[in-house]
Design brief:
The complex is a heterodimer of chains A (498) and B (551). Chain A has 498 residues and is an all-alpha fold. Chain A has a domain at 273-498. In chain A, 72% of the residues lie in helices and 1% in strands. Chain A contains 19 helices and two strands. Chain A has helices at residues 9-14, 16-34, 40-64, 79-99, 110-129, 133-151, 158-189, 204-221, 230-236, 239-264, 269-292, 297-318, 321-352, 363-366, 368-382, 388-402, 406-431, 445-463, 466-475, and strands spanning 68-70, 75-77. Chain A has a two-stranded antiparallel sheet with strand order 1-2. In chain A, helix 4 (79-99) packs across helix 19 (466-475), helix 5 (110-129) runs antiparallel to helix 6 and helix 10 runs antiparallel to helix 13 (321-352). Chain A starts with 8 loop residues before the first helix and ends in a 23-residue tail after the last helix. With 551 residues, chain B is mostly helical. In chain B, 69% of the residues lie in helices and 3% in strands. Chain B contains 24 helices and two strands. Chain B has a two-stranded antiparallel sheet. Mean pLDDT of chain B is 84; it is low at 171-183 and 523-551. The chains are: A mainly alpha (498), B mainly alpha (551). Chain A binds chain B through residues 322, 325, 364, 368, 379, 384-386, 390, 394-395, 397-398, 401-402, 404, 409-410, 413-414, 416-417, 420-421, 424, 427-428, 431-432, 464-466, 469-470, 473, 485-486, 489-490, 492, and chain B through 67-72, 108, 111, 133, 136-138, 140-141, 143-144, 147-148, 151-152, 186-187, 190-191, 194-195, 198-199, 202-203, 205-206, 209-210, 212-213, 218.
């Protein structure tokens, strides 16, 4: 393997978002250290400013169609990477807004908190561009690194420590699996770049190697049977970190899964499709059934997240261009609904000091706005029209039925009904039960902003999804050569360039 | 302006709901005004639609098509035919009436009107969707408002469990009993309703997805699928069964009905009205729109299933209604019994019987809307729905009791009400094909008389308990108007059914012609092929049909 290590300015342009964010990260850290009296809110807005500039830079890339590869194909910037990066940046901005009121609970290191959040975001941005096994490993660990600290940020809270420990041990174990899988795959094929691996003979070592890599990525997305860390970690971690954890690493890991399965392993689709189908059925069924028994809303969302990942895997099992579109679109809808729901949870937890579902009793009387927002987010997660989640689920089902995955779709449809039950239990508490304490709940500005963004995203995508669908379709043009009827559909002009 | 009629009907309630979000709950009259105003706009537009629909031209009219998703082949394709038009009108009337029936709601008024407007708009959306996706979209959208309406403003049905008959045996909902576990609260009713409907809705969605895949047309458009998609063999059977049972659960056909009476009983009056009046018709309508239009051959083969199940619906619903002691259970079971008539009319696949079924849907919406509105009034005044403990209320509420008698007469199918015409058409139209079912249906009418008279006597006549001496009659315009509207509509269409009949026939004719491949001799209903059979209709039906104006 030969790497061309000479970098021209135009090459660096591809790295501009990441480079800029790295520099900004240093600025955030220096500002935090240099000005002792700096209010942490200003630090938060400083971080958001950097993220917004990066977002603008990515939007410019998308519009002008700047794409390319770097470092001997280790790093790739294509439309799909841009789509994923935008989602990650959006999630990070919303999470920082969520954090502003929460950071007061940390007795120390308030400034570093934002540094760690942005650093994880940076790692995940690299992850979406990872195009070979080495960069996969490095970026994945880079992204997870920050989370190990963030999860156990509430140093004096036992649950947070437990969450951190559990996450760390299982995370390191997954890293070991990943490294071992990579070594096996490299040993069998002698190749590192995904696109070079197509057509490799399916030897035992290669199969085991890919299974191990899938296990490590399964850990990231929290698919059954690699989900065991999720409930406790979600429960114990500081709530904004839980919100971050529930969306951003999943988004980034799906970028890698798409590249791995649809590029490197495209020829073995019949074999891995079975694996994905099994993981999807298990995740949906397990997540939804166990969620029914939850009494804590963070745990409820943890299990619902497992089920949602099962839904996304349906799109991967379809393995077509349309399946890829549906994954991107679904993750976008999930982002708004999930972060919105966490914003409501935080608003309530700030006022009530608890995340138990029983404490949501009579929320409609205490704060009609929060109850309404939570209703919309939960119903979007359940997949009720006219909300974004419904379109996302339908798109995934349409992509899957074109590939004839009838059993998978049937399981998915039944699971919608099961999930309806536990989401409605929360709705019942909020709307039907009488409040235990009728004092009104106040929300702060940043939380309100997140809720408004979530509501806008959920409703707009649900009512008029066309621009977002176009964007997702345009982002996955690289997969148009995949077999499947979706390829025959005329490609529309995307709103964000073409 | 006229071409936007459907959009106005559909979006006026949505706009009203949206406007209500920004109004404070304290400004009661403004809240009510916005709700009533948007419902009124929708009503006026649907009345215009009903009379502007040209039955001579037939087919789908007032078509609107807005591209929605190219990738999925979805467009907001709206249009009404002779079947959708009367149902849109019925929804408009019931929504408007429902706003006034719930005028006295005290708790969270704004939210109540928001959800009831969304519920009605979603229902109207189904009746005018010409795209499978939007049909499902609006269908599923109507379920969640029901949950909140039942849960937040409903009432418990606990007492029902303790009710016993003369021998001291417990009277319980037989199928529901399996799920009951002693918890018969409004939360239970609401959850049962949502889960039941969602479970069967996803079955219908599976059918829709199969249609989408195997048509190979990359479109959800019903008009395109109707012309170009062909299904046969086991696949067609599977799709048909998924569609039929998926949508028939909301109709509700026996044995999928158990959510319905429980839901009626828990719901506030206006919700019961919309639920029984139009929501249940979504089932029949969607079956007609999807299964009849896209799978005509399979419909011909498999529709006897409905003919069998409708017997159970009619008799079972009627018997339970006779023994039930809760007013709303009586009306709820009577509704599910009466929906069996619609299935009978549909199953016969005959011009007269299917027209009768569609007119019956319209007629039943008015009759049952009245009954639920008045049951709600009685409950508000007496705080009980237990028939044995009530009685003699006609002294206190002469207007309500008079209107109740009219409502019962309409529900029974008294000549002079539109229900009579519908019933006669169903019975005459299906006699050739299903004589046994027709006998059952006629017995069902007797049963209807029995339980409605029993309830009428139990509520309004006999001696009155002292504690109800403070109950009030409906005296104000606001309270009387919804009842008067429904009574007027029911009777005026009963006496002048001409336009209603020709509108419905213009929708039914091409459909039946497609399914049975028999072209109607459309000059006069008596000249239709089935009428040449030796069976001579009764003199009553002669009269009824003589009233029908020739097309």
């Amino acid at each position: 393997m030969t790497f061309s290590l000479t970098l021209s300015v135009s090459d660096l342009l591809l790295l501009l978002p990441e480079l800029f964010l790295t520099a900004w990260l240093c600025v955030v850290l220096i500002v935090d250290f240099s000005f002792k009296r700096i209010v942490q809110e200003q630090l938060a807005y400083l971080s958001i400013l950097g993220l917004v500039i990066t977002l603008a830079c990515l939007a410019w890339f998308d519009v002008t169609g700047i794409t390319g590869t770097l470092f001997g194909k280790m790093f790739v910037l294509d439309r799909m990477a841009i789509f994923f990066k935008v989602m990650i940046l959006l999630a990070t901005i919303l999470v920082i807004l969520l954090s502003i009121d929460y950071v007061h609970r940390f007795s120390f290191f308030r400034g570093e908190y934002y540094f760690l959040v942005v650093m994880s975001a940076l790692g995940m941005m690299f992850m979406t561009s990872a195009n070979d096994l080495l960069s996969l490993f490095v970026t994945l660990e880079f992204a997870t690194f920050g989370f190990y600290v963030l999860v156990s940020y509430l140093r004096d809270d036992m649950a947070s420590n437990e969450a951190g420990l559990k996450f760390f041990i299982l995370g390191v174990f997954a890293a070991g699996l990943l490294a071992y899988g990579i070594s096996l795959v490299y040993g069998e094929t002698g190749k590192l770049v995904f696109s070079d691996m197509t057509g490799a003979a399916p030897t035992t070592g290669l199969v085991i190697g890919f299974l191990l890599i899938f296990a490590a990525l399964g850990f990231k997305i929290g698919a059954v049977p690699f989900h065991s860390w999720i409930p406790d970690t979600y429960h114990g971690a500081p709530t904004p970190v839980t919100a971050f954890l529930s969306i951003a690493p999943k988004v980034a890991a799906f970028a890698i899964l798409l590249r791995l399965f649809l590029v490197a392993l495209a020829t073995f689709k019949p074999a891995w499709a079975l694996l994905i189908v099994a993981a999807s059925i298990l995740s949906m069924t397990y997540g939804n059934i166990v969620a029914i028994a939850q009494r804590n809303v963070k745990r409820l969302l943890a299990y619902s997240g497992i089920a949602q990942v099962g839904n996304v895997l349906i799109g991967l099992a379809a393995g077509t261009k349309m399946g890829t579109d549906s994954i991107l679109f679904y993750l976008l809808t999930y982002l708004f609904a999930n972060l919105g729901a966490f914003a409501v949870i935080m608003a309530i937890s700030n006022a009530v000091g608890s995340d138990e579902i029983d404490d949501y009793s009579g929320l409609n009387r205490r704060s009609p706005f929060l109850a309404f927002a939570m209703l919309i987010f939960l119903l979007s997660l359940a997949g009720v029209p006219p909300l974004a989640g419904f379109i996302g689920k339908l798109y995934i089902f349409v992509a899957a039925i074109k590939e004839g995955l009838y059993i998978l779709i049937t399981v998915g449809l039944v699971n919608i009904v099961v999930s309806m039950y536990y989401y409605l239990i929360v709705v019942k508490k909020m709307y039907i039960s009488e409040p235990l304490d009728s004092s009104p709940i106040k929300t702060t500005g940043p939380l309100r902003a997140v809720i408004y963004v979530g509501l806008a995203g959920t409703l707009v995508i649900g009512i008029y999804p066309q621009p977002f669908l176009d964007w997702a379709v345009a982002a996955t043009l690289m997969f148009s050569n995949l077999l499947g009827p979706a390829a025959s559909i005329p490609v529309p002009v995307a709103p964000f360039g073409g | 302006m006229a071409e936007y009629t459907l959009l106005i009907i559909l979006f006026a309630p949505f706009v009203g709901a949206l406007a209500l979000i920004f109004v404070s709950n304290r400004q009661l009259s403004l809240v009510r005004g916005i709700a009533a105003g948007s419902a009124f706009v929708s009503l006026i537009a649907s009345v215009y639609l009903f009379y502007a629909y040209d039955p001579l031209k037939g087919g789908y009219q007032f078509i609107q098509r807005i591209e929605w998703s190219r990738q999925l082949g979805i467009s907001l394709h709206l249009g009404v035919d002779g079947i959708g038009t009367p149902l849109v009108l019925a929804s408009g009337i019931l929504l408007f009436a429902g706003i006034f029936v719930s005028w006295h709601i005290k708790d969270r008024v704004k939210e109540f009107y928001i959800w009831i407007l969304i519920l009605a708009a979603a229902t109207i959306g189904v009746f005018m969707s010409l795209d499978l996706f939007f049909l499902y979209f609006f269908y599923e959208m109507s379920v969640i408002p029901m949950y909140l309406l039942l849960g937040m403003w409903g009432s418990h049905t606990k007492k029902y469990l303790e009710m016993t008959d003369a021998e001291g045996l417990k009277q319980r909902d037989s199928v529901g009993f399996i799920f009951n576990f002693g918890a018969n609260s409004k939360e239970y009713a609401a959850m049962k309703l949502v889960l039941f409907l969602s479970a069967f809705a996803v079955a219908a969605l599976m059918g829709i997805l199969l249609i989408y895949k195997f048509s190979g047309l990359n479109t959800f458009d019903i008009l395109v699928l109707r012309e170009q998609a062909h299904f046969s063999g086991p696949l067609a059977t599977l799709i048909w069964l998924l569609i039929f049972f998926g949508f028939a659960s909301i109709a509700p056909i026996w044995p999928l009905h158990s959510w319905s009476p429980v839901g009626h009983a828990a719901a506030p009056a206006a919700t019961s009205m919309l639920h029984a009046g139009v929501l249940m018709k979504l089932g029949h309508f969607s079956i007609i729109r999807v299964a009849f239009e896209i799978l005509p051959e399979t419909t011909r083969e498999l529709m006897p299933i409905a003919a069998v199940l409708c017997i159970f619906s009619i008799i079972y619903g009627g018997l339970v209604a006779y023994y039930a002691k809760d007013t709303k259970y009586v009306i709820g079971y009577s509704s599910s019994s009466h929906m069996g008539y619609v299935f009978l009319g549909m199953a016969a696949l005959d011009y007269i019987s299917l027209s009768g079924a569609v007119i019956y849907m319209f007629a039943h919406a008015m009759a049952t809307g009245m009954l639920f509105a008045m049951a709600g009034w009685v409950y508000d005044q007496t705080h009980t729905r237990d028939i044995p403990s009530l009685g003699g209320l006609s002294n206190r509420m002469p207007f309500i009791s008079a209107a109740f008698v009219i409502g019962c007469m309409a529900s029974i199918g008294m000549p002079g009400t539109v229900n009579f015409i519908a019933e006669v058409m169903i019975i005459v139209g299906s006699w050739n094909k299903y004589p046994f079912q027709v006998v059952v249906a006629v017995l069902g009418i007797v049963l209807t008389m029995a339980y409605l008279f029993k309830m009428m006597r139990g509520l309004f006549y006999g001696s009155m308990a002292e504690k109800y001496s403070h109950s009030h009659d409906a005296v104000t315009v606001v309270d009387r108007m919804p009842l008067l509207i429904m009574i007027t509509v029911s009777i005026s269409f009963g006496i002048f059914p001409g336009h209603l009949y020709s509108v419905v026939r213009s929708g039914v004719d091409p459909l039946i012609a497609r399914i049975t491949k028999v072209v109607p001799v459309a000059e006069h209903p008596m000249n239709l092929p089935h009428a040449t059979s030796p069976t001579v209709p009764t003199s009553a039906s002669h009269e009824a049909l003589a009233k029908v104006t020739p097309r």
